[in-house]
Amino acid sequence: DQQVKQNSPSLSVQEGRISILNCDYTNSMFDYFLWYKKYPAEGPTFLISISSIKDKNEDGRFTVFLNKSAKHLSLHIVPSQPGDSAVYFCAATGAGGTSYGKLTFGQGTILTVHP
Amino acid sequence: GAGVSQSPRYKVAKRGQDVALRCDPISGHVSLFWYQQALGQGPEFLTYFQNEAQLDKSGLPSDRFFAERPEGSVSTLKIQRTQQEDSAVYLCASSPIRWAGAGQPQHFGDGTRLSIL
Questions:
Q1: Is there a contact between B105 and A34 if contact means CB atoms under 8 Å apart?
Q2: Is there a contact between B89 and B109 (Cβ–Cβ < 8 Å)?
Q3: Which stretch of DSSP H or E encloses residue A86?
Q4: How far is CA B28 from CA A96, B35, B71, in A?
Q5: How far is CA A73 from CA A53, A77, B4, B27, in A?
Q6: Which of helix, strand or coil describes residue A102?
């Protein structure tokens, strides 16, 4: 039962263009969403997050959009740079209760930005 | 050296051997998580500590997996009688507060890549 899904295993983008990574979730108890970036042989690095009370959060070149009714979120990177090439994981958690903030991850999307 | 540190980085063991994986969280971080990442997949939750208390071990695959954090800082994940399906990257993460939903993301170590022959 995959509660967080990233349906695109890979994405290739030209430098300077926009990268859009998508994520869908099924558990309506999730109310906090995060994006992590991972380089080979390194641990995931936090990128940006969004609470369910918002529909957009922006940090520099990175913007995350949340559509609660569709249970869908997306990460926009603009402009894309070659150094952005990595695996991107979407993760979700429910704050409070017995979730303890444990993260449920998607399968990841490999982003390649070509010079 | 302010990050989460894991050791060893790589571990090769024969099927049936016991292994121990170590995690040094960021100093002062209350919460500590272990995740298992199979090849081509996202990390999957194993267990959670708040200080020295193991509050959630619902993700541990079997009773061969055991984790501890006796003094509320360093944690060890032990796998007994290893099997080939235990081969994965084991990631440790810590955060300064009780749960990430309050706006504090988890900080991950670089993981231990475990290979069972």
A1: yes
A2: no
A3: strand A86-93
A4: 21, 20, 12
A5: 13, 13, 28, 33
A6: coil
The identity of residue A24, as a single letter, is D
Instruction: Decide which of B92 and A2 is more confident.
Output: B92
Per DSSP, chain B holds a count of helices (H) and strands (E) of: 0, 11
Residues 6 or more apart in contact with residue A27 via CB below 8 angstroms: A3, A92, A94, A104
**CB distance B43–A31 less than 8 Å?**
no
pLDDT digits (tens, 9 = 90+) for A33-81: 999 999 998 999 999 999 999 999 999 999 999 999 999 999 999 999 9
Find all residues with CB under 8 Å of A1, minimum gap 6, and list them: none
The band of A2, judged by pLDDT with boundaries at 50, 70 and 90, is: confident
Nearest to A22 by CA among A93, A70, A58, A54: A70
CB-based contact A102:B56 (threshold 8 Å)? yes
Rounded Cα gap, residues A106 and A23, in angstroms = 8
**What residue ranges in B40-100 does DSSP mark as E strands?**
44-50, 53-56, 65-68, 75-79, 88-95
For A53, phi then psi, to 5°, come to -85, -5
Characterize the bridge pairing of strands A109-114 and A10-14: parallel
Residue in chain A nearest B10 by alpha carbon: A41
Mean pLDDT of A92-99: 71
List phi, psi (to 5°) of B61.
Answer: -70, -30
Mutate to test the interface with A, among B4, B30, B37, B55 (most CBs of A within 10 A): B37
